[in-house]
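Dear colleagues,

As part of the handover before I leave the project, I'm documenting each prediction I ran so the next person doesn't have to rerun anything. This entry is a single chain, and its sequence is reproduced below.
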Amino acid sequence: FKAEIIERLRAERARRERVAATAQLLRTTPPRTTRRKLVFLDDLASLPVVSGRLRTIIRELQFDVRGLPPSAPLGNDGIDVKELLRPCRAGITIYADRSKYATAYNRLVYFLNQVAENSLEVERWGVYLEQGTVASEFGIESDDVVAVDEHGLGEFLRGL
């Protein structure tokens, strides 16, 4: 029994050392100057046509899009959202499918909390709305969380 516990502890220490070495490598690797800016796009509460149009606009403005697969679990035992958001300059939540209000709201709050708790350098967060404001739809009043539409998306991204 003692040997099993010691072996597990050694394996866990080796795993932590590998993770730390990888993190150190990522911190010391110089960024490429030609790399395009990243925007995180949460389109779970979107319609395919809206999501496609917004992705096209974002790419035309020389940004790359980062997102999540639809069934990806967040948080514990899921995708490390903190690391996913770390290189992003902005985030956008699409709220076009009004039947997914709770999903859109919960994910928006989760992503904003990740940005705040981990001091990520995400400069702004946009919420694509077909009508209303972020305050009227979700009760969030902040200069850093703004409503965007297809026409205002370019201005939103150029402000980064």
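Strands lie at 37-45, 63-66, 88-95, 124-129, 145-148. The radius of gyration is 19 Å.

All the best with the project,
I.
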